[in-house]
């Protein structure tokens, strides 16, 4: 009974992290609503989850807003640019999938390859933004190289994100409230492991 009320009890630790992910998901949604702030809010999300994933406890809300303010200006072009490219590729995928013949197939596969490269890069882009203070060109180059070099882990991160949102959409709708924070947390667990060789770990 005494152990039940111990704050280090695994059950309470798990519940605490669950609440943190719920709060982070809500903050991300609210602060991404203006659209132009989506880059800063995503970087702030990863700033906190990278710490949570390494069991570095802190003030979740305060840390989120601190990272949000730090990444607001550089996050605007990266966020809008990433969103615009994603929408453009999504529209191309839809359009070329409707074209019959060999040209349609060639164009569709070309866009599929570009979309894969885009997703692989974005998976690393905003976590790197949360960790590194450098210009957007270096961030993009680092994100792309890391995604290729760690292809297996990159694929796992993309698949895990798809699975979490699929569970929320098709199996258990309430799960969506932590899907954003949960995805970032899983990615952060993997990234903290990978980044030790780049001296980017906490």
Automatic annotation (TrEMBL):
It comes from the Bacteria. The chain crosses the membrane at residues 27-50, 71-97, 103-127, 139-159, 165-186. Pfam families: DUF624. InterPro entries: DUF624 (IPR006938). The keyword Nucleotide-binding does not apply. Keywords: Membrane, Transmembrane, Transmembrane helix. This is DUF624 domain-containing protein. It comes from Candidatus Mediterraneibacter stercorigallinarum.
């Amino acid at each position: 009974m005494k152990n039940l009320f111990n704050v280090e009890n695994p059950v309470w630790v798990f519940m605490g992290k669950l609440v943190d992910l719920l709060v982070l998901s809500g903050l991300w949604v609210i602060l991404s609503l203006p659209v132009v702030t989506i880059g800063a809010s995503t970087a702030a999300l990863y700033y906190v989850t990278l710490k949570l994933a390494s069991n570095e406890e802190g003030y979740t809300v305060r840390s989120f807003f601190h990272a949000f303010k730090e990444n607001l200006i550089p996050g605007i072009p990266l966020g809008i640019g990433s969103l615009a490219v994603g929408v453009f590729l999504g529209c191309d995928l839809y359009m070329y999938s409707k074209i019959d013949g060999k040209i349609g197939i060639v164009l569709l596969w070309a866009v599929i390859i570009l979309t894969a490269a885009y997703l692989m890069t974005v998976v690393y882009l905003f976590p790197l933004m949360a960790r590194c203070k450098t210009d957007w060109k270096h961030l993009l180059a680092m994100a792309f190289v890391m995604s290729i070099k760690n292809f297996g882990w990159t694929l796992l991160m993309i698949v895990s994100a798809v699975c979490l949102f699929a569970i929320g959409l098709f199996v258990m709708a309430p799960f969506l409230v932590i899907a954003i924070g949960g995805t970032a947390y899983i990615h952060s667990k993997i990234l903290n492991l990978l980044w030790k060789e780049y001296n980017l770990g906490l």
